[in-house]
Amino acid sequence: MKKGINTICTHVGELKDNEHKGAVSPLYMSTSYAFEDVETKRYPRYFNTPNQVALSKKIAALEHAEAGMIFGSGMAAVSTALLAFLQQGDHIVLQQTLYGGTSNLVVEEFEKFGIDYSFTKDLEISSFEKEIKRNTKVIYIETPSNPLLTITNIEAVARLAKQHELVTMIDNTFASPINQNPIDLGIDIVIHSATKYLGGHSDILAGAIATSTAHMDQIFQLAKNLGGSLSDYTVWLLERSIKTLALRVERQNNNALTMAEWLKNHDLVDTVYYPGLKDHPNHELAKTQMHGFGGMLSFECAASVNTTSFFKALQLIKPSMSLAGVESTMLLPALTSHSLLTPNERYAQGISDHLIRFSVGIEEVEDLQQDISSALRAGL
Ligand SMILES: *Cc1c(COP(=O)(O)O)cnc(C)c1O
What we know:
CATH superfamily of the largest domain: Type I PLP-dependent aspartate aminotransferase-like (Major domain)
Oligomer: single chain
Radius of gyration: 21 Å
Strand content: 5-15%
Number of strands: 12
Number of helices: 14
Helix content: 25-40%
Bound molecules: pyridoxal-5'-phosphate
CATH class of the largest domain: Alpha Beta
Number of domains: 2
Shape: globular
């Protein structure tokens, strides 16, 4: 029988403590194992220690995949996946709006590997099709995207890729496996920055990949040479974090929807971007491919609000670069993720100087509302 999501989070892959009958997975810190009895030699950089293997099973179960792999960071997972399927002379099509680290990897490093790339003009499926060339091997997407929470049609991208025999990859970090399972929609390789929702407490740097065993074999061949594995202690902590993943994310989904609706009606807020709102341009699409709309939203405060004073006045919500923890955090994309663009380049992407990205935590919404209301007034 198929297990429920909280049962998967809590139990799949757990290691038995046969000696002491403890309730949680024992932690095996060994970097050295006997050579006689394991077919592939056990070594942390081979991704096959007991704790690594156990957690990989949970990741695979969460993403409805045959295999999972845990990495030392989200970018270790992204770079390993990309380079495992691209070589000199190949071309990749990437979605226009991507996590900054991923576009930096492509723009700053791919030329020296002789890998050609194109970013789509927008998220229309015809824009993906237009960029496919004779030597294209991979299509790479990310949905919902940062910071405007745009939605890419996952199933349509997967179908297009199959017609052209291309490998598809998705960064599923913002949705988490609770809200979106791209393999069910035809995507080949699912990537997570486990630093975000999987970790969930802003204290773990990690990454993960879920895919078929055949694709994972190809990824493993490169991964063991690149060496981006995660230490077993952090693997063990990540297992603990994921036990509450579904509980946390369901709460964050509910909080984010309540906050999005409340912000929309606030007289010092102009626009709210959240795929769960009925007037979000991609709401209907989001409904077809997401089980929940996630804990990330962004909003534009009124031009009369001074954003520096607003951030200074926040008491509860932390101004913070990262996201997806149990605590609510906010940042100003114009000063952080998109600070290297000129103001006009930012405006062209829809990122105004008053746009605030909000990672909604698990606190009571009344407390969040009070904090935002008084900070907005302090910004006048
Ligand atoms: C944070 C993040 C990454 C990179 O992950 P790290 O764990 O910081 O290496 C990749 N994609 C998205 C969407 C992210 O938010």
